[in-house]
Specification:
2 domains; mainly alpha; 286 residues; membrane; rod-shaped
């Protein structure tokens, strides 16, 4: 499964500031060459200590951000697997009778698909609820629009639907327990995704990181002027690209449920789930 679009290069977002730093480096070089008394070179050893400290801090923020991205990826995989498992149980373990046909089973599967799309809409803070109308009954849809926690409401409806089959004798308590287990796992996915969205990396970390990186990169030409001559601007550009690009990557992967090309492809995953369950039940909309 492809989770990011490789065409979206970090360089496209960082090139403006990198060009400014590159131009500043050449300016410092020529000023130092033609007016050596005007430009005051800095001790390069200071940048060595600051660079090491900055790399450690940047690594810490990167690990924290990637843990969030990896957790989101894991939860979306769980969403797909438990949705399929619950669909298998609905289609194969619930007994049919004169009052409960294969179409009723498919209606239950539709609630699973609606839950996936609802989770997607809530995580991205969108408002395209009309996409759910082909999947769920009108009364459920109307109640859904009035709820604040819509994904949780659909899981509750799915639990009630399962209990109804148990009350009518279409499944025994063992099968109901197995189905409820998958519903509980979907609830865990919901809770984990909500935690990723609601509990962000402290903003002060990003402020400190941005300021330190930019100050370091803008002062670096003065530290390397006396030791690298004309090669200095290129080396400063490379070092700046490394730090600023990592900073941009950290800012993006820290929030994996947005619509940027580097984020998790929630729309694609939900469509994959819908297509998969459609293939199983032979009726779900594409």
């Amino acid at each position: 499964m492809i989770l990011c679009d490789k065409k979206d290069l970090v360089l496209r977002k960082t090139i403006p500031i990198l060009l400014i730093i590159f131009s500043l480096s050449w300016l410092v070089y020529f000023m130092g060459y033609f007016f050596p008394k005007v430009v005051l070179p800095l001790n390069v050893e200071i940048f060595s200590f600051v660079g090491i400290s900055l790399a450690i801090f940047l690594g810490f923020c990167n690990n924290a951000a990637y843990d969030r991205f990896k957790e989101g990826n894991k939860q979306l995989a769980n969403l797909m697997s438990h949705s399929r498992s619950l669909t298998f149980q609905i289609l194969n373990l619930i007994k049919e009778d004169s009052n409960f046909t294969i179409q009723d089973k498919r209606n239950g599967v539709n609630i699973i698909v609606a839950f996936c799309y609802t989770l997607n809409i809530e995580l991205k803070n969108k408002n395209n609820w009309n996409d759910l109308t082909p999947l769920i009954a009108e009364d459920i849809y109307n109640n859904l629009r009035q709820k604040e926690f819509k994904s949780a409401y659909l899981l509750n409806e799915l639990t009630n639907w399962t209990n109804e089959q148990f009350i009518n004798g279409r499944i025994d308590f063992i099968i109901r327990a197995r189905m409820n287990h998958n519903i509980e796992e979907l609830s865990k996915v919901l809770g984990a995704c909500e935690r990723i969205v609601d509990t962000k990396i402290p903003f002060v970390y990003f402020v400190l990181l941005h300021r330190t990186i930019y100050i370091f990169c803008f002062l670096l030409p003065f530290g390397l002027l006396g030791s690298m001559s004309w090669f200095m601007p290129f080396f400063v550009f490379f070092i700046s690209y490394t730090f600023i690009s990592l900073d941009a990557v950290v800012a993006e992967i820290a929030e994996p449920f947005k619509d940027r090309k580097s984020d998790l492809l929630l729309d694609q995953i939900c469509n994959d789930i819908s297509s998969s369950l459609n293939e199983i039940s032979k009726i779900l909309p594409q």
